[in-house]
Amino acid sequence: MTKSKVILTGDRPTGRLHIGHYVGSLRRRVELQNAGDYAKMFVFIADAQALTDNMENPEKVRQNVIEVALDYLACGLDPERVTLFIQSQIPELCELSFYFMDLVSVSRLQRNPTVKTEIQMRGFEQSIPVGFFTYPISQAADITAFRATTVPVGEDQKPMIEQATEIVRRFNYIYGPTLVEPEIMLPDNSACLRLPGTDGKAKMSKSLGNCIYLSETAEEMHKKVMSMYTDPTHLAVSDPGHIEGNTVFTYLDAFCRPEHFAEYWPDYANLDELKAHYQRGGLGDVKCKKFLEKILNEELEPIRQRRLEYQKDIPAIYEMLRKGCEAARAVAAETLDDVRRAMKINYFDDADLIAEQAKRFNASQN
Ligand code: TRP
């Protein structure tokens, strides 16, 4: 059977990627890549989208394009199997967004919950850049230009995929079946949906200094793990502890597998037993943090090593991205040919049109 799945996803290059990105999406992408059950897979760096709220800071975006590319390769994405590219280098995406803008109302954009919260977070209430307000439309173009069927992203991106689906339906209804409806693929482990920061705050964010980066050293990570937020009521080791909202346990939920106990902490058979002991009392935070640190290092050390290797040849990374952009552009160009034909704006490659019009005018003259 021929494989029909087209997987596509991307990240805004506004900083190095952290373990929230990793459990939320990166780890899954590498698994999908390795499973090979797809016709095509695209992973891209959404630099144009990053500029929608960093327009005054192009240097930051430029620096982080290469950081994100290195993080991708370090995690194990393989340019032989996945097309890695940079959004701004695909002009077809602008063209498609331009057409999609006619299919979306202002009030529909205003209802997009992700855009709503992001506008608040950025203090944009008074002067929202049009490009930021309409980024769900350009994101729909990112997805549909490559005929993506499957979009592995975090939960926060759900409204974007819904909006893209609506645009596809409306386009196909008006212009005839042309575009493919995408489906979101969420992480299957709920602890991975939104990994909190090391301080227990809702989200990892560079400005809060509560992220563990994929590219940081084991020493840097050690400090962060040791100062992680746990249970403020767990004062003495003998006190009963709470695991809800306890960041160490949330991270264990996201990273720990039963074999880690055999390897690093044979006193317990699995995470449930460890949690039960913590809740009963008699188990200190430091022991749990050390266990978490070992698990994190096991997962992150190969990523750190690969990154160091890739960093040795930066020109090769740019060359790989350039080739990826070229390949991606060829795919988007094909979709745009179909889009223009469906929208009846393909004036010069339609011999019938020209003949028909010639006939119409000549007939009316006689
Ligand atoms: N909005 C996504 C983010 O903030 C990045 C992104 C842009 C994306 N276009 C996309 C993700 C298309 C998936 C598909 O991370």
Characteristics of this structure?
three-stranded parallel β-sheet; two-stranded parallel sheet; binds tryptophan; 366 residues
Give the proportion of residues in helices: 55-70%
Taking pLDDT < 50 over at least 5 consecutive residues as the criterion, the unreliable ranges are: none
Q: What is the string of SSEs from the N terminus onward?
A: EHEHHEHHHHHEHEHHHHHHH
Rg estimate, integer Å: 24 Å
Instruction: Indicate the proportion of strand residues.
Output: 5-15%
Could you say which structural class the secondary elements and strand pairing correspond to?
A: mainly alpha
Identify the strand order in the major beta sheet: 1-2-3
Mean pLDDT across all amino acids: 94
What kind of sheet is the major sheet? Answer: 3 strands, parallel
Number of helices: 16
> Terminal Cα separation, in Å?
57 Å
Work out the number of β strands.
5
Bound molecules: tryptophan
Q: What is the general shape? A: elongated
